[in-house]
């Protein structure tokens, strides 16, 4: 191999055939060789060879490389005449505004004729798009004073510096996304991307290519290579929301990617390696899904090295006033006028079972601010659901206490059944009681 590579013709032949851009230059920057793929990537006319690093498609490649090298101490490495490839990531925006490249560069020591600089270029426009999407999520505090939730935060802080996969179980809107971002931020991977995928939001037939990417021609409409989310999260964290929605037929490939840290993009038989830490979330109990044979047990155990159970908002009502203050402040910074809560409105908010959890509370407060009267949030300013819940349970003050309690209970049950489309198991869960208790109460109140 060594001898073969000494033969420049053979080397050129090999490099010409690969689809990554390859450039060989002297350490001083004079170009010795550029393959066809590089010309294509740099949008150079066919047959034109760049003569120097400065002469590549109008992009000051030399500067980009030199800066990158200095940042990563490459020049120092050159002076110490170290061998090896330095990997450095740098987005290069071409004048056309269309492309970015990931650069890998290194110094290759030759037996005769000194060292050469080797530069590899790859089109990563798609990956840049995915990462930009991921970067949009700003840091955010998790507001709580609930002892169970504080314990969850303690576990999260302990797990963050490790490589352990973390699974978060909790109803929709309980803050799993916020926690995933916090976990990433506290981890050694914080400087790398956090890529989020909501597995429920992507049609199942597209999930494979969304996760693993595809190559040109893999299926109708695959007009070019496309990087997947695993690749975009390389060296960072991949957050899989609603992981229970990954279809069974994809779970085997998924497990392999998680276990062996390698996968093949759709339509390709070439393995790609990745180094990702997986944090996942599910609002349905994944263990139940395993028992119902809807989720692979081996994958479940892989993903749930650490499991965090996020309690619903109705189980931590002490957080409600804190969250109200937090969201009113946040809404103020978004341009809403300041408002105060009338005591009766606060009572309704504390009473309500919050099936949509913190997300529903946040939306309710935005609604309330829009409907506030002269800077005061009255009961009338609250969304209909919250007022309905109250009015169905509310009673004329003259009625007897136990009747009062029964009527309140009846209202709660009717509300929960309505919100859960008549599903008693879901309604019982929402009310924080078991199904038998719900059924007994319904019978006693004449609802069953
Ligand atoms: N403890 C908290 N402190 C501050 N904001 C919170 C808290 N919990 C949730 N939120 C806010 O509530 C909203 C919903 O939270 P998030 O998206 O993290 O919930 P989720 O459990 O991931 O929901 P889903 O399962 O539907 O994806 C977000 O706007 C988030 O900022």
Automatic annotation (TrEMBL):
SMART domains: AAA. It holds the Pfam family Sigma54_activat. Keywords: ATP-binding, Nucleotide-binding, Transcription, Transcription regulation. InterPro entries: AAA+_ATPase, AAA_lid_NorR, Homeodomain-like_sf, HTH_Fis, P-loop_NTPase, PAS-like_dom_sf, Sigma_54_int, Sigma_54_int_dom_ATP-bd_1. Residues 142-370 form the Sigma-54 factor interaction domain. PANTHER family: TRANSCRIPTIONAL REGULATORY PROTEIN (PTHR32071). This is Sigma 54-interacting transcriptional regulator. The lineage of its organism: Bacteria, Pseudomonadati, Pseudomonadota, Betaproteobacteria, Burkholderiales.
């Amino acid at each position: 191999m060594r001898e073969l590579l000494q033969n420049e013709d053979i080397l050129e032949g090999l490099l010409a055939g690969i689809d990554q851009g390859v450039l060989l230059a002297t350490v001083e920057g004079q170009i010795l060789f550029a393959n066809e793929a590089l010309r294509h990537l740099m949008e150079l006319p066919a047959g034109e060879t760049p003569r120097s690093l400065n002469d590549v498609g109008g992009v000051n490649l030399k500067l980009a490389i030199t800066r990158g090298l200095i940042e990563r101490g490459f020049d120092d490495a050159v002076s110490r005449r170290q061998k090896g490839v330095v990997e450095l990531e740098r987005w290069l925006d071409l004048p056309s505004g269309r492309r970015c490249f990931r650069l890998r560069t290194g110094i290759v020591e030759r037996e005769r004729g000194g060292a050469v600089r080797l530069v590899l270029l790859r089109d990563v426009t798609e990956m840049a798009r995915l990462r930009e999407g991921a970067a949009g999520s700003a840091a955010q505090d998790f507001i709580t004073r609930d002892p169970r939730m504080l314990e969850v935060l303690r576990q999260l802080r302990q797990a963050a510096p490790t490589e352990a996969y973390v699974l978060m179980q909790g109803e929709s809107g309980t803050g799993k996304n916020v926690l995933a971002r916090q976990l990433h931020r506290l981890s050694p991977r914080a400087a790398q991307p956090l890529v989020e995928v909501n597995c429920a939001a992507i049609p199942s037939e597209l999930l494979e290519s969304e996760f693993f990417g595809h190559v040109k021609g893999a299926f109708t409409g695959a007009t070019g290579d496309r990087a997947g989310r695993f690749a975009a999260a390389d060296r960072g964290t991949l957050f899989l929301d609603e992981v229970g929605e990954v279809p069974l037929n994809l779970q085997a490939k998924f497990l392999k990617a998680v276990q062996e840290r390698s996968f093949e993009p759709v339509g390709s038989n070439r393995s790609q390696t990745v180094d990702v830490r997986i944090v996942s979330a599910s609002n349905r109990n994944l263990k139940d899904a395993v028992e119902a044979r809807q989720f692979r047990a081996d994958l479940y155990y892989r993903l749930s090295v650490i499991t965090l159970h996020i309690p619903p908002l109705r189980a931590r009502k002490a957080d409600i006033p804190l969250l109200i203050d937090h969201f009113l402040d946040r809404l103020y910074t978004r341009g809403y006028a300041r408002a105060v809560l009338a005591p009766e409105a606060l009572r309704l908010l504390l009473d309500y079972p919050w099936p949509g959890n913190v997300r529903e509370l946040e939306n309710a407060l935005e609604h309330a601010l829009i409907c506030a009267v002269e800077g005061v949030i009255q009961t009338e300013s609250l969304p209909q659901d919250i007022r309905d819940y109250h009015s169905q349970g509310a009673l004329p003050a003259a009625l007897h206490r136990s009747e009062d309690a029964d009527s309140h209970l009846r209202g709660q049950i009717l509300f929960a059944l309505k919100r859960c489309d008549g599903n008693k198991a879901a309604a019982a869960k929402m009310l924080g009681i078991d199904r038998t208790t719900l059924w007994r109460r319904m019978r006693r109140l004449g609802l069953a």
